[in-house]
Amino acid sequence: MRHKMLNITYDWETEQARINYSSHFKSYDDLEKLDSLKDVINMLEKKYEETRKQFSLRSLVSKYNKDRREHDKINR
Q: Most-buried pick from 2, 25, 27, 48 (CB within 10 A)?
């Protein structure tokens, strides 16, 4: 069965995350809580790594393009 487990919000001004747990989650036994939280953590870590890699790649491409433009200006 699928249902909402938690709600996460992030405040950019205070740079803090806020987590609200659903009544369903609160009714889990301890093992269910640990198991479901570990699954969520794994998904978030995977998303973090994907985003970090995309950011790194964009940064490299941007730097390459900037260097290329500067090179082209010099060689005109």
A: 25
Per-residue model confidence (pLDDT) at position 75: 72
How far, in Å, CA of 25 to CA of 20, rounded? 10
DSSP secondary structure string for all residues of the chain: -----EEEEEETTTTEEEEEE-HHHHTS-HHHHHHHHHHHHHHHHHHHHHHHHHHHHHHHHHHHHHHHHHHHHHT-
Query: At which residue do the structure tokens 């953590």 appear?
Result: 41
Site of tokens 């919000």: 9
Q: Strand 16-21 and strand 6-11: pairing? A: antiparallel
Amino acid 69: pLDDT: 76
> Which pLDDT score, from 0 to 100, does residue 51 have?
87
